[in-house]
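Q&A FORM
Asked by: J.P.
Topic: structure of L-ascorbate metabolism protein UlaG, beta-lactamase superfamily

PROVIDED:
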Amino acid sequence: MDTPGLTISRILHAGYVFECEGRRIAFDTIFENPFSRNCHAFPDVRFDQDAIRRQRFDAVFISHFHDDHCSLESLDLLDRATPLYIYCIFEELFEMVRRLGFTSVQPLALDAAIKVGPFEVIPREAMDVDVDSMFQVKAAGLNVLNVVDSWIDEVALAQLEREGPWDLVLWPFQTMREIEVLAPSRAAAAPPTLPQEWIGQLQALQPRYVVPSSCQFQQEPWSWYNRAFFPITYAQFAREVGAALPGAQVLRLDPSTSVRLDASGMRPAAPLPWVVPVGEQDVDYQYQGNAAPPSTGEIARHFAALDAAQHARVMDYCHTGLPEKYGAVEASSSYFDQPRVWQLSLFGSAGEVTRLRYRLDAERATLAGADAGPLGWTTEIPEAKLYAALELGESLTSMYMRINDTVFDAATERGLIEADVVDDPLVRCLFSDTFGAYQAAQLRRLLARSLPEQL
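REPLIED BY: S.T.
REPLY: Here is the structure written out as tokens.
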């Protein structure tokens, strides 16, 4: 008689398939390359979408609403009877998924178990409880913790210790520098080591196996982010975790790779046939500090020129929409409590630039001339990316925005020490009170292709 076991297969990023006793569940299903507009699988893969459409999962679990975990383009490939369980505090996301045609869409509650055949899946509390969750998965007498890409606080760690022992932990191994690359001239290079609290947490959990999980992408091949965004290599993770947990095995699972886990150990299993590796798979990240970023004008040359209507949409937003929105979105720091002069620079596909100045106070943004006074904040962005944010749901991490890449007067520099980069006026106006723009844009495209009458 076969020993009870669990087969675990990597899809991409935080995506996995778990199989036990003929039943299959999946997590954070992303079947796109690139995904989130400019996240290219690393190592490279392609997806057999026709084969994916033939797959049948007993349930799909989504840890949070971020577009690299919850993509309607990927969900569109699944059978509409698939039960979907989503951790999200915003009802709008559930409505969007239902409009896509799914008939069983349920919210997840922390610590409330979902049973699917031999599986028991329990959402656990992540540090940012309003955004994401972790998953505890029990099956075949095994205990797996899928941390997804969350951080763990002391209270949650104590609970997870009580839930042990752990056979396998899927650990998010990258400290991505999404904020630092927005203002590289003002950000210190990150040390290429794991945060010390991660080591302590893994030692507290004491798993038999650890998989470096969640981060398996780079940006466009030409992007300077590829040298500045990802400080930690797979090799470094294996060295540090291996030294801290000598009784555990660190195992890298690339896309399509499968393993069979049981009480006696782990062994290779048949790969997912619908995730197809492309080229070299034994690749690793190469971090080069702040990597001498190219100018925004150079970056803008990589994007197609806007047509007249698209350019008009951007300029109308800058002249009308943004000033109207500014007073309704508050900053988190006090820097903008006093009037500031802000310069917004839009770069076209030929590197040409349009500069706009605004006088900002707590309640309004007003277009101003070059003589408005000394600059107190600057923002640069490719015009094509601003259009994509307005119409295509583009997220901040792929917009190549550059903030405060200059030297201000001494008083302004002193004030900026306590300012938060994401208090940037454009960032706030685009994102601070918007939910699900990426998925909403996806839904519009999907319905336009298949159900135009619902638009």
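FOLLOW-UP: The first strand starts at residue 5 and ends at 10.
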